[in-house]
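Go through this chain for my students:
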Amino acid sequence: MTRRIPLLPPSRLDEPQRAVYDAVAGGPRAQGVQHFALTDADGALRGPFNAFLLQPAVGGALQELGAAIRYRGLLSDREREIAILLVAAHADSAFERESHEAIARGIGFTDDELRALRNSGPDGFAGREASVAVVTAALLGGDLDDDAWAHAERDLGAAIVFELTTLVGYYSTLAMQLRVFRAEDYGFTP
């Protein structure tokens, strides 16, 4: 599969693109332990982030939404990665799966848990983690019926359900962009 847009190294960016680049490459994603590379050897953004530079006003908003979901949300790290990995499995997004499996391993997920998530199942999870998996799976199907809503509101609360709907939408958008721009082949190196 051939990339549909070129990788944009920092030397080729205009001011609005550079602001988005700096927010991704220098923001919270770049702090602490790195489970996957945000940039390639030339400094170009990898995965979905390179496409953010095509339209900086929208890409910047997406970058900020992703940062809010990953670093300022109410979900625990494990709950968030469960939901992200279920979206990756549903969308068959290799980049999202590989990068977030690396993050999940770093926070203690077992091989059995990762295998269950690759198969889009809540097997091996209990309590809130199981509830997050069940709600995410329902959202990936398009809705929460009244019974699912009642369980989600009781087990997680409306604020977490809001966060999950936003997370599913965001990571589904990234998966689509990875497919459309043929960015899945940008190479994964943990």
Remarks:
- The two ends are 21 Å apart (CA to CA).
- The mean pLDDT is 92.
